[in-house]
């Protein structure tokens, strides 16, 4: 009882002094957001949304959430997660025409959902357990099937990933990296809603107010990323940083379709964009011009709404909206906004009034002449896309239901620099690869060039328990194309392991290519990341009425064998004329007598029947042993 | 008929008299097979016998073994007894010690006896029993309070008869004028009656709650107290629905919601430490608490009227948009929400605005409407004082703490109510499990369920024996957890469904073609055997005649 007393009294006395010191201070730089718009060739527009907020590790550990979302924070604490990377991806990045990927590919994943995290655990088993908690909790939070990331879809990459955050050396020893991927997952609006809920300003103010499920998932390519990592500045307290990124490539033409009437219809002839340089071009003939970059667009037409002011929490020194177009192009912005040109980069940013709506219109460039070549026009209207360090393409080879092959074409566009990278595949267990068939060839040079593969990390699959993990450290010489191929065998699944749409095929996750930073400059491990497309593997699919057929078939076989054997054992064999008599006439008369009896019964009812016994012959058909001694 | 026919068969075919011409014509051409050797006949019998033995001794057991559903043995009757309240008669013996330092030993004994009498006369509820005892004279103030004693009565001489409950200790101070001391021989005393009535009123609420709990369960009526008015029952039922299910740990989630961009920060940590922590510490023997806090901007409420009516309150929480996900882990979450806004609550009936702009959502938490100046960006701990005091009082009612009496008494009452509640809950879970096992004959019952049930019953027995004490609560807690685990066993939930058509479709193709030759073989063999026996008998008879 006295303990009660003291516990009541003590805090009351001491708190008056403590109260000011424990106040939660917020500096404005704990949150910032930015939207970068960049028109791409072929009338596309890349929109990169970036939101970043910090919380001090002490506040995080005391469960005081302010800018950091509580729902995610709780999950991270519960699952002992040090660093988390979650990716939702849809579509294909067209590197040939769009060039290098945004953020050097660091903020995107393969098609579907990708998750990798560094977990705090003493043993592998503990890590697996925490991973299970993490995937299940995230699955609930993001309305995605992340809970299907089980042992068969989880790998522990050895070379491909390095933590992005600052981890203390003491804790680094006990962190486990786990990587899971769900290529089959279809990313949709229900994943965007929880994503927006994590933002401090929700979707209500700032650049997030432009995000709309209809437009986002109508994009040619889109990627949503969440990265959580601890960051320790050189001075001051360590913070936990959450970075949320959305990148999308919108087709301007398609975005401009009216929302109420989204069905595409043929435009009237005067609206057609024709290539007039063709000799047959006339009023009634039109060759479509494939270059349509110089479309007029505005935020309203592209995103379906205008931007609603700025988020009041955001760092005022980071301008919320930036546009990357050549300096020569004019941009109209709404009243109150201020344009600021960046002299070094070909980008201009806009200061947006806090409470007013913001609209931006990029008109058709002036002086667009039909006589100019398309390349010239493109150079005038757009910033030339950067060439990526590597192009990669992966496809299936071979035919039939038993074997197949995978071929990856890796092309180094650079004329003088060699590219060194790590190629990682996490394959399902039912795709059994033959490691001896892994080989590299250089286009134009006959023969194998296996020296290009410098290091192989291979963890074979275990049926129904884990998938294959293959990591290759390899290089591609300057301006050459390398073919990386290997063969595999398709295994037959158990009846219940087939999904309902088994004939669609099984998704094989994208290969992860991490291009190494040659000199490890600015502390970054990877210079560039890219993913190939995911593949659809056709497995031999059974007829699904099979079990019942099997039951019937085996039953019939058993019955045949058993009946024959049993009868041979039990019956007595006699000569044909010695056996019991059987003839049609006898049967007929017998039946007649039977029916007659029934008819008699029906007619006379109560008349007692005294039918002579005629069955004497037939009764002996079955009895092989009814012989008199 | 068949008897006659078999006799006919027994006669040689040549003697057969057929009424039809056709077989009569052919009959003479037929030969008889040569007689079979007795060893062949015996061998055939052995073959058929061995087939049947294999089927019956090997096939049937294997089939039985592979297709039966495992059902562990559950003590169904005992479980139902627990659920019906036959196994345990909940009795809460409360020890109350009387300190009467100013009285003679003899006088004190008399007073004790009389008070106990008066108490027993007043008490109509056998389950809730107050037992008085005399404690030795105090050695100054530094007395160790025994945790087994529910209440201490300090009798002091004074000017008039007064009673005063100590706010921090489970002590009832009673003063009495010296002339009211009963003599050793008196059979009644006004002081004794007064003490008894004071005690009774102190424990009236606890008694009412416990009797309400018991009456809501299927405890036989003879254990139940009679006197519970409908109004009292109604208010108790309101309170019980309001309070959360018992859990050893509760998660408290404090949220600051605002419909606009400000305020963006609050001094919640300091405010909790100052205004709420003391109560949490006091509750710590019964519950543990974990805490988290969050700030959410641009949170639109579900109702945006300026004046909130009673109906609006239930839809005020915008569950679709507000990130109020419950905490992960086993602990239930209690939500405390401070909503920054100048909305007011209309009290039904009167045209007045409620004094406290807050309301409690049963089993969920509390919402407090905090009106702040327009440009406040930071909410200070001082501003949070009123909300947090409201939250604290609501927390007590959400955990089911009784409303009257001093805090230590309320808490010890809470422990007793909780143990009774858990005991009844575990018993009724056992009953549901037993009824489920009876109702679904095809449900499998793994041995872990049987283990859980036996553990539950063991702890229930212990809890029942030590009801009212701290061990009682601990045992009831374990019993309840085990009962829940047994009831929600995963492998029991996934019950396989095999309709009869399905079974028929699987068995018929196999059993039909195999069974027919087996059965026919057996029938023929039996027929032949009977024939042989009869022939033997006839032969014997014929020999005798000769």
From TrEMBL, chain A:
<feature type="region of interest" description="Disordered">
    <location>
        <begin position="606"/>
        <end position="629"/>
    </location>
</feature>
<keyword id="KW-0812">Transmembrane</keyword>
<feature type="transmembrane region" description="Helical">
    <location>
        <begin position="548"/>
        <end position="570"/>
    </location>
</feature>
<protein>
    <submittedName>
        <fullName>GPI transamidase</fullName>
    </submittedName>
</protein>
<dbReference type="InterPro" id="IPR007245">
    <property type="entry name" value="PIG-T"/>
</dbReference>
<dbReference type="Pfam" id="PF04113">
    <property type="entry name" value="Gpi16"/>
</dbReference>
<dbReference type="GO" id="GO:0042765">
    <property type="term" value="C:GPI-anchor transamidase complex"/>
</dbReference>
<keyword id="KW-0472">Membrane</keyword>
<keyword id="KW-0732">Signal</keyword>
<dbReference type="GO" id="GO:0016255">
    <property type="term" value="P:attachment of GPI anchor to protein"/>
</dbReference>
<keyword id="KW-1133">Transmembrane helix</keyword>
<feature type="signal peptide">
    <location>
        <begin position="1"/>
        <end position="23"/>
    </location>
</feature>
Automatic annotation (TrEMBL), chain B:
<comment type="similarity">
    <text>Belongs to the PIGS family.</text>
</comment>
<feature type="region of interest" description="Disordered">
    <location>
        <begin position="1"/>
        <end position="39"/>
    </location>
</feature>
<dbReference type="InterPro" id="IPR019540">
    <property type="entry name" value="PtdIno-glycan_biosynth_class_S"/>
</dbReference>
<keyword id="KW-0812">Transmembrane</keyword>
<keyword id="KW-0325">Glycoprotein</keyword>
<feature type="transmembrane region" description="Helical">
    <location>
        <begin position="46"/>
        <end position="64"/>
    </location>
</feature>
<feature type="compositionally biased region" description="Basic and acidic residues">
    <location>
        <begin position="28"/>
        <end position="39"/>
    </location>
</feature>
<feature type="transmembrane region" description="Helical">
    <location>
        <begin position="504"/>
        <end position="524"/>
    </location>
</feature>
<keyword id="KW-1133">Transmembrane helix</keyword>
<dbReference type="GO" id="GO:0006506">
    <property type="term" value="P:GPI anchor biosynthetic process"/>
</dbReference>
<keyword id="KW-0337">GPI-anchor biosynthesis</keyword>
<keyword id="KW-0256">Endoplasmic reticulum</keyword>
<keyword id="KW-0472">Membrane</keyword>
<dbReference type="GO" id="GO:0016255">
    <property type="term" value="P:attachment of GPI anchor to protein"/>
</dbReference>
<comment type="pathway">
    <text>Glycolipid biosynthesis; glycosylphosphatidylinositol-anchor biosynthesis.</text>
</comment>
<dbReference type="Pfam" id="PF10510">
    <property type="entry name" value="PIG-S"/>
</dbReference>
<dbReference type="GO" id="GO:0042765">
    <property type="term" value="C:GPI-anchor transamidase complex"/>
</dbReference>
<protein>
    <submittedName>
        <fullName>Phosphatidylinositol-glycan biosynthesis class S protein</fullName>
    </submittedName>
</protein>
């Amino acid at each position: 009882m006295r303990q009660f007393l003291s516990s009541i009294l003590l805090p009351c006395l001491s708190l008056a002094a403590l109260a000011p010191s424990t106040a939660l201070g917020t500096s404005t730089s704990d949150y910032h957001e930015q939207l970068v718009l960049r028109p791409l060739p072929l009338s596309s527009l890349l929109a990169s949304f970036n939101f970043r907020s910090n919380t001090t590790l002490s506040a995080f550990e005391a469960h005081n959430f302010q800018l950091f979302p509580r729902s995610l924070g709780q999950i991270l604490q519960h699952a002992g997660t040090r660093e988390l990377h979650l990716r939702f991806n849809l579509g294909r990045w067209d590197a040939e025409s769009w060039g290098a990927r945004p953020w050097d590919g660091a903020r995107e994943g393969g098609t579907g959902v990708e998750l990798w995290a560094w977990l705090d655990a003493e043993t592998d088993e503990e890590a697996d357990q925490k991973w299970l908690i993490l995937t299940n909790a995230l699955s609930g939070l993001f309305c995605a099937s992340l809970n299907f990331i089980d042992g068969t879809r989880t790998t522990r990459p050895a070379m491909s990933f390095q933590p992005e955050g600052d981890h203390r050396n003491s804790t680094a020893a006990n962190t486990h990296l786990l990587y899971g991927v769900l290529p089959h997952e279809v990313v949709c609006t229900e994943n965007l809603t929880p994503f927006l809920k994590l933002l401090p300003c929700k979707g209500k103010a700032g650049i997030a107010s432009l995000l709309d499920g209809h437009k986002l998932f109508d994009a040619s390519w889109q990627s949503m990323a969440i990265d959580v990592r601890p960051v320790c500045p050189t001075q001051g307290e360590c913070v936990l940083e959450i970075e949320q990124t959305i990148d999308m490539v919108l087709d301007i033409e398609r975005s401009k379709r009216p929302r109420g009437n989204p069905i595409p219809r043929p435009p009237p002839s005067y609206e057609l964009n024709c290539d007039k340089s063709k000799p047959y071009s006339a009023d009634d003939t039109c060759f479509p011009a494939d270059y349509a970059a110089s479309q007029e667009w505005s935020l309203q037409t592209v995103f379906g709404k205008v931007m609603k002011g700025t988020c009041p929490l955001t760092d005022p020194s980071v301008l919320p909206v930036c546009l990357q177009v050549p300096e020569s192009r004019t941009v109209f912005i709404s009243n109150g906004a201020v344009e600021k040109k960046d002299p070094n980069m070909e980008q201009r940013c806009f200061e947006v009034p806090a409470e007013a709506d913001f609209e931006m219109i990029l008109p058709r460039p002036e002086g667009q002449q039909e006589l100019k070549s398309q390349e010239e026009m493109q150079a005038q209207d757009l910033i030339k896309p950067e060439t990526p360090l590597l192009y990669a393409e992966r496809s299936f080879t071979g035919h039939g239901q038993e074997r197949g092959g995978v071929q990856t074409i890796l092309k180094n566009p650079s004329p003088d620099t060699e590219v060194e990278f790590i190629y990682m595949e996490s394959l399902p267990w039912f795709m059994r690869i033959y490691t001896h068939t892994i080989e590299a060839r250089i286009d134009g040079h006959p023969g194998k060039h296996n020296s290009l593969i410098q290091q192989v990390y291979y963890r074979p699959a275990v049926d129904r328990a884990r998938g294959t993990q293959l990591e290759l450290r390899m290089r591609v010489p300057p301006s050459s194309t390398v073919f990386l191929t290997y063969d595999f065998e398709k295994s037959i699944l158990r009846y219940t392991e087939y999904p309902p749409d088994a004939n669609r095929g099984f998704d094989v996750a994208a290969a992860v290519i991490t291009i190494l930073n040659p000199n490890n400059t600015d502390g970054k491990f990877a210079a560039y990341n890219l993913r190939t497309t995911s593949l659809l593997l056709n497995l031999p699919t059974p007829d699904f009425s099979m079990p019942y057929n099997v039951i019937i078939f085996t039953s019939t076989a058993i019955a045949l064998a058993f009946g024959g054997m049993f009868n041979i054992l039990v019956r007595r064999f006699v000569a044909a004329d010695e056996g019991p008599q059987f003839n049609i006439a006898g049967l007929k008369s017998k039946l007649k007598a039977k029916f007659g009896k029934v008819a008699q019964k029906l007619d006379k009812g109560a008349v007692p029947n005294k039918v002579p016994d005629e069955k004497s012959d037939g009764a002996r058909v079955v009895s092989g042993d009814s012989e008199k001694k | 008929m068949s008897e006659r026919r078999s006799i006919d068969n027994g006669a040689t075919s040549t003697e057969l008299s057929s009424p039809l011409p056709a077989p009569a014509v052919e009959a003479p051409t037929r030969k008889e097979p040569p007689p079979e050797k007795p060893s062949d006949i015996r061998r055939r019998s052995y073959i058929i016998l061995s087939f049947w033995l294999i089927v019956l001794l090997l096939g049937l057991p294997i089939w039985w073994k592979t297709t039966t559903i495992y059902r562990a043995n559950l003590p169904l009757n005992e479980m139902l007894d627990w659920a019906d309240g036959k196994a345990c008669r909940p009795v809460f013996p409360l020890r109350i010690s009387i300190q009467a330092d100013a009285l003679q030993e003899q006088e004190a004994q008399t007073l004790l006896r009389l008070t106990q009498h008066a108490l027993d006369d007043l008490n109509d509820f056998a389950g809730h029993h107050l037992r008085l005892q005399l404690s030795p004279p105090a050695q100054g103030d530094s007395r160790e309070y025994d945790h087994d004693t529910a209440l201490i009565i300090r009798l002091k001489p004074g000017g008039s008869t007064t009673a005063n409950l100590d706010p921090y200790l489970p002590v009832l101070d009673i003063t009495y004028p010296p002339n009211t001391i009963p003599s050793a021989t008196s059979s009644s005393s006004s002081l004794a009656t007064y003490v008894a009535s004071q005690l009774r009123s102190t424990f009236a609420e606890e008694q009412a709650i416990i009797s309400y709990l018991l009456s809501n369960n299927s405890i036989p009526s003879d254990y139940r107290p009679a006197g519970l008015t409908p109004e009292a029952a109604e208010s108790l039922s309101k309170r019980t629905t309001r309070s959360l299910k018992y859990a050893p740990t509760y998660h408290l989630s404090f949220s600051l919601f605002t419909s606009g961009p400000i305020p963006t920060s609050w001094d919640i940590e300091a405010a909790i430490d100052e205004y709420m922590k003391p109560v949490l510490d006091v509750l710590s023997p019964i519950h543990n608490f974990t805490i988290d806090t969050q700030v959410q901007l641009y949170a639109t409420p579900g109702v945006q009227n300026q004046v909130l009516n009673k109906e609006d309150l239930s839809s005020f929480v915008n569950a679709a948009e507000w990130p109020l996900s419950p905490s992960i882990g086993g602990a239930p979450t209690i939500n405390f929400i401070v909503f920054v806004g100048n909305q007011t609550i209309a009290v039904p009936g009167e045209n007045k605005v409620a004094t406290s702009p807050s309301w409690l959502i049963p089993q969920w938490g509390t919402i407090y409407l905090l009106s702040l100046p327009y440009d406040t960006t930071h909410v200070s701990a001082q501003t949070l004082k009123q909300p947090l005091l409201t939250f604290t009082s609501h927390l007590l009612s959400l955990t089911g703490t009784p409303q009257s009496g001093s805090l230590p008494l309320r808490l010890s009452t809470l422990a007793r109510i909780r143990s009774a509640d858990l005991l009844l809950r575990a018993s009724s879970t056992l009953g549901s499990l037993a009824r489920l096992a009876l109702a679904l004959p095809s449900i499998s019952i793994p041995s872990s369920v049987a283990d859980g049930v036996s553990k539950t019953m063991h702890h229930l027995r212990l809890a029942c024996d030590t009801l009212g004490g701290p061990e009682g609560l601990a045992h009831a807690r374990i019993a309840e957890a085990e009962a829940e685990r047994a009831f929600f066993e995963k492998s029991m939930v996934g019950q396989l469904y095999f309709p009869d058509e399905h079974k028929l479709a699987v068995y018929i193709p196999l059993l039909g073609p195999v069974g027919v030759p087996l059965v026919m073989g057996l029938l023929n063999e039996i027929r032949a055997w009977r024939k042989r026996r009869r022939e033997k008998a006839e032969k014997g008879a014929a020999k005798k005649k000769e």
